[in-house]
Structures are given as structure tokens and as C-alpha cells.
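[job 4417] fold queue: 2 targets
>>> target A
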Amino acid sequence: MKRSTYKAAAVAATTVALVAALAACAPAGNEPAAAPSGGGADAPAAAAPAETPEADSFGVVVADSWKDIYPNQYQTYKANEANSPQGKQNYLTEYPELVTMYAGYGFAKGYDEAASHAYTLQSVSETPRVNENTLANCLTCKTPQYTAMVNSEGDAAYQKPFAEVLMEMTEPISCYNCHENDPSKVVVTQRHFADALGADADAVSVNAETCGQCHNEYYFYPETKATTNPYVGLEAMTAEAMLDYYDAMDFKDWEHTETGAPMLKAQHPEFETIYGGAQSSMAKQGYSCADCHMAPAVAEDGTEYSSHNLVNPTEDPAIMEKCEGCHADLSSQIVAWQKETTDREHELAAKLEAYIKELAAQRESLDADTLAEAQQVHRHAQFYWDFVMVENSEGAHNPGLAQDNLDKCEDELKAGYALLNMAY
């Protein structure tokens, strides 16, 4: 899943926190977890059910089986269906340069704004980016049934044919992904992400890690095809460190058909943008994803719970009222951050496209060393740009970091333009 913007009525695909300078606010502790692994304030968990419903053949208790035991959570979870694929933004139209930037890769064929968790299986089944050679690893974070399969079978599950495994899957992202089969706990079920946290697993709330296990940058390890993160620990969760990691192993997602550069495609690095490296302001204060995307709610009978309708925080009064003591008009500030980021994305996309076309034109006339240097500029500049554009907040999760990565993109391009004797 890719960026689901704050311009939409609900940002269900983006369960990561609105990380900005919410300076003096205190975490409200509305997260639905039992025991945090560190970081934010965590509310008491839901009581364990007297009896766990029967699991399916994959060992997953599907969402519908919990509806009578946790009716409030279930009803708000189902509300995510309002954030459907209909009317979603086409990024190839919004950023026409992407056809050139992704030439030779599936994203040049189709790239739409993400819908909610309720549509993960539908979206992956309909994308033009899959073909007869696609492997089942593309189902990572699309269904809890595949997560359970991987946890049971290991790396062999990643190597199965996509189409074959997809036919077995029926449950989109749901309860198991975050709770396994025990709603009284919050669990990182994606074991590759748990490994990637390393010794820092206790440095961040498990509630944030549970969202981050799917909202992160990953790649498929060449030998095993396993879904893998390009880092271990929080300090290594920066775009620059990831480039070093990928460069050291000579990894590429594809070879660009026009420039011949070995390219990288960033995924959706929300967790890294918030918690990686120097971290965002809100992360440092102990906030986690639920503070901004899962509103505190009260049922008709007075029961307090966390809404499982994952929303745009600026459009939910129950979330925004927590910010009013420190921010006179946070919504306007967010709009300003997003405009600054997207305006610059468009400006640099045009510069990238021009560079790609010029490099393609000069490719045959450049000596081997100059060509390799120019191709690396393409690889690095585009990764820095992609890292910001595909992160699901348009810069709002960490405005300073978004600009820093766009600065790095621009620095690379200036060096590339000089190398090819282009006027910047």
C-alpha cells in the first residue's frame, strides 16, 4: 500500500501517527494494548475472552468471529469499508514523471492511492503490477492468513506462486495482524520486522511497532525471496543508511530501461520516518500511532474503547481536542507542511525526469566510469525522492525529515547535472 493522503476523508491505510511538533501535549493513553515494549502511554487491554472462537485452516480467527465478543471494536473496524478504492488518486496522473522514473518496473503500469485495510486483498488482486512470475511474497501484509502461513512454513512460503496462494486467501487485514488470536494483547506478527528492530524492540511502544510492521521499507532477499528490512535497529532506519545497505550488497529492484541504472523502489516508510534515526518530535515524547489514528470512544452503555476506524486525525474531534491546548490551528499547519512537501516533490520530479532523459541520450557516449557515476546519481536521487513521496503523510509525519531527504535528492541532482553538463 502506498500514500493515502490527508486530503481524503479517512486515512485508513495509514495507521501511523501524525508526527509533527505537538510539543507540550501529553499522550492520552488511548491505545488498545496490554503491555507496551516501551515508549508511549498504554491503556489497559481488553479483557481476554472466556473462549476463543474457532480458527480457520491457517490458524487465524477471522474478524467476523469476534463481532459478538467485541462488538464496538468490530463495528468500528467495519467502518473502514467507507475508505474504498473508488475515486482514488492515480499517481501516474498526479506525477506524470513517474512513467519515466519507473520505466521498466511495474509501478509505471499502475499506481493508485491506497484504500483501507478492508480492501488489501482486492487491491493486490487487481493491480497491473503482478504477472505470471510474481511470487507470494507480494502478499506480505495483505492478509493475516498469509502471515500465519509464513510463520508456520518459513521462507518456503515466500517462494510459492502468487496466483496460487492468492486463491486460498479470504481475509483482508484484520484482528490477527495486530493481536494474533488474543485481543487482550498487541503482537508484532511479522517476524521479519521484529528481527529488524533488534535490540531496540523495547525502545518503542509495541502499539507503534504493530503498525510499523506493515508500514515500513522492505525488500525481497534475493536468495530466499523473504520479505526483509534493510536495517537492524532504529539508528539504521534512515534513507541514507538504507542506501548504504543496498549499495553494499549491490541490490536492485530493477534496471531502468532508459538509463541502465540499478534502481530501488521505496515502499511506505512511515515507521522509519517517525521512529528512525533522530526520530520525530512526537516519537520523542512517547506518542504512538493510535494517539492520532484511533480515537477514544464511548459506547452507548458507557464502555470506553479505542475506535478501530483508522481515520484522518484532523477530521475527528475526539482526537483533535487533545491538541487544542498547544495548537491554535493544527489543521492549517498540517496543510502548510503538506503543501511545502508536495510542491517540492513536483519541482524535483521534473528535474529528475529531465536528468533521466539526458542521461539516456548520453548513455552510449559516456566512458564507463562516468556512466556508472551518473547512474548512481539517478539511483540515489530517485530513492531520496521516492522515500518522501511514498510515505503516507505528505510530509506531515516528520516535516523536517521530509525536507532533509528532498535536500539530499536535490544535492544528488545538482552533481548529476554538472556531470552531464546540464544547466540546473
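>>> target B
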Amino acid sequence: MESHTVRTHRSADGPPAEEQLAWKLARVATDPVEVEADVAEMIGNRVIDNAAVAAASLARHPVVSARAQARAHPADPGATVFGLPAGERTSAEWAAWANGVAVRELDFHDTFLAADYSHPGDNIPPVLAVAQHTGRSGRDLVRALATAYEVQIDLVRGICLHEHKIDHIAHLGPSAAAGIGTLLGLDAGTVFQAVGQALHTTTTTRQSRKGEISSWKAYAPAFAGKVAVEAVDRAMRGETSPAPIYEGEDGVIARLLSGPGHVYTVPLPAPGEPKRAILDSYTKEHSAEYQSQALIDLARRMRERVPDTSRVVDVVIRTSHHTHHVIGTGSGDPQKMDPTASRETLDHSVPYIFAVALQDGRWHHVDSYLPERAQRPDTVALWQRIRTEEDPGWTRRYHSTDPAEKAFGGRVTITLDDGTVVEDEIAVADAHPLGARPFARPQYVEKFRALAEGVVEPAEQDRFLATVEELPDLPAGQLHRLTVEVPAERLGDPADTGRGIF
């Protein structure tokens, strides 16, 4: 990997295009290096993972709405939409939109955390949609997704958005644009313009993840993917973008991030170096914000030592700055302690999540969020006794670049009514590559089967999984097979969402 410094320049001495970060990202996208076998295998895993979480969300209101919008934009050849027959196609940007919402709705797919955080699987819907529309092959798709994962993860390693309250989709727009550039074999100049446009239009605030969290949390990555498709289309037609988008006097660093005096360092593969960043990311076993994954596993483990939660008088979760301030009591959000809060809010409340996991010994993507579950009196009583504290040691481990030391968990102290103290800690989730039960292809398939049960017919599940096994060798024009069709009665009623413009 090569480290690239990125800072603001005055307009009078701005760097040439080839020295700008957007161009360097474009250079990664246009490097013809082949994808290594273990990376291709993991890309297949994440295609399965996305399909799993999309299947489980197909009848949920935001997904039904997004799918209805997409169906109003039919196209030939077009791209497929999760749940619909493969022969029914929509325009690529709207397919990216509908599928992106389906994948993101349950907050249940892959993650990468470093200077910022991300769900790099959000790149798959826009890249796949363009690949289907343009008749690309499985090899083309694999190469494109290796780029998209690489660019997003490397940006997340080097540039923190959340400290400036910028939503993390600002790294997703450029990565999806870069991935599509690889897919289509575009030149660096065209990808450079597309990356700049995608970044410029996806720098949004983090209010979407603050307070009473709305359904926009699922739509935000889909918006970035849709914008990326459109940005590439405009760039291919010769349209240009604001530049230097990162380094400019009124660019992203100067006005939205750490300001003109700050220097960022972004690692990127050297020319000819394989793109392997996807192997540093990890998926979720539980449908909740990633920093809660390890704590759910810890709660399940501690439950054996706390069989009667009515005796709990105090719970302290000592954890990283990020966990404390984003999903813990350090956020200052009263909604995180509100039994009537939305599902989107509850999955960003570690006090709620730990309380339910401690009582139930499990986490379920539907049952654990039901209003009657959140409002159960004994759960509310326990929930209100849970608080988080930042621990400098866990913060240091959260930001460590050493995979063996990096941690996303914490230490929990439970005090019972007789003064008994129960303590335990966990560094990473059980499903993490360094966890107790790391996910590999069998676990991804198991997750898919579990979430698709009762939604996707068994024969259709088998067909989809067999297609993924062929992914690197799928011929051109066969990528429509990487979708799942669902009986119409299981897709929810579009009439329930009301009627919009389309």
C-alpha cells in the first residue's frame, strides 16, 4: 500500500488533476490487476449476505415504497429488483435505489470501522445494477466490486467524517462511482469526474442518525448508489465536476471536514497491487448497529450468571468513545431510552440492545424490536439501569491499526441487589474474523437460509446460491440470475405506502 497525503490548497496553487485524491482513486479503479481467489470468494459471500438481508426486508414499508418508485421506471435491458421476476427490469439507477433500501433496511449486512465507519456492501446494488444493464460478466462484476470495496475501505481508514457530523455515505458515492468505472473499463479522466460528482452530491449531515432516527437511514446509502450511477453517466457524456473536490479552497476538507490546515493520509494500493480490502471487513450475525454485535454476544454469555434480571440494580458498559457517544448514553439522545422509539432508533441504542439480549439470550431481527418487546415493564426497568462510559483503553483499541488488537467491544459490570458483581469483557463479535465463530461461506449460506425462510421458495434459494457459486465464471448477460424472486403476496401492498409523483 502507498500512503497519500491530502490537504487543502489555495486556488492559486491548486494541484494538477493527477495529484488530486479523486484522480488517485480513479487510478485504482483503472488498474487492470486481477482479483485474487480469496477476494473473489469473499465477494460471493457478500452477494449472498446482501440477498439474505434484502429477502428479510422485502415487505417492510420503506422497501415497498422504494420498489414502487423503481417499478415506475421500466427499462430495456435494465436491471433486476429484489423480489420481482428477473424479466421485469427497471432503469439501473432506480434498481440501485430499490435494492439499496432493501439491503440497508434491517442494518444487518457487512461493516468496516476505522477512522470512520461504513457498510461496504452498500456498493453491491449500484454496481450490480449497472452490470446487469450493460450486459457484463461475472468476472467484470467481481473486479468492479473489488475496486468499490477497496476505495470505500481505504477512505474510511484515512478520513473521519463523523467527527464533523457528515454522514458516512460521503465515502460511498465515490467508491460506487469508482467500482462502476472499473466495471465499464473507463479511463482515469472519466472516473475522476464521476468520483468528484458523486462526492459533491453525497456530503450530507449525520442528523439522519441522530435523535429519533427515521426511515431515511435505509434510504441514505441507496441515494448515494443512485447518485453514483448518474454521476458516471454524466461523466461518460463529457460532463465535469467541481475540482479539486477534496483539496479545493472551498472543497470538502476545507469547509466540511478538519479545515485548511489539516492533512489526511489515505492508503491506496500501489499500481499492480491486488485489491484486498474486502478481507478486512466483516458481516453481522445480529440485526443491529455494529458496535453492539460483540455486546450482544457478551450479554448472551453473561446471562448464565444473571438468570434473574429483576435483581440487577446497575449495569455499566465501559467501551470506546465511538460506542459511548453514538449508540450509548454519551449520545445525549433521550430517544435511546424511550420504549416507544422507532426500530431505527432502538437498533442504535446499546442500553436497549444489551437489556433484551441479557433477558432473552438471543437477538432476532423482528422479535427483538417489536413494540410489545420494547415496552415490556421488566425490560424497561432493566434498560433504564444501563449506562455506558468511555474507557480510553477501549478507545485506543478501537482505533488500533493492528488487527490483533483492534476491538469493538467493551467490559460490562453488572451489580445485583445483594452486592454481587458480575463482570466480563469481549473484544470482537463471535462472527468477526478473529471471533469465536468466524463467518465463512457455510455461515453466510446459513444466514441466507434463515432470513429467506418463508419469503423465498426453497427451489429459488437453491437456484440463487448455485448461481453465486458460479459468480466469477458467469458469462456476459447472465447477471440477472443474481436476484431472488418472491411470490407477489409476500412483497407487501404498495397501496399501503400511498401514492407519490411516479
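[job 4417] complete. Note on B: The first helix runs from residue 21 to 30.
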